[in-house]
Amino acid sequence: xxxxxxxxxxxxxxxxxxxxxxxxxxxxxxxxxxxxxxxxxxxxxxxxxxxxxxxxxxxxxxxxxxxxxxxxxxxxxxxx
Length: 80
Fold this sequence. Notes:
Largest sheet: 2 strands, parallel
Distance between the termini: 24 Å
Order of helices and strands: EHEHH
Strand content: 15-25%
Number of domains: 2
Helix content: 40-55%
């Protein structure tokens, strides 16, 4: 079975600590021969009406699940 590692950066700071950490983790996966992809949410134009708070209120999700849920929605949009 082949795995693909998806790294998602939600930091608004481009090339900051989060991006550096994510790059090092993704680099380790590449060294092990895994297929990888990195998505930076700060580089995407996201409609201001779609916010984590809306997800929390409507779906009753805690913030961690809401963030992950929204990130997965964005990844799906990228690949359409």
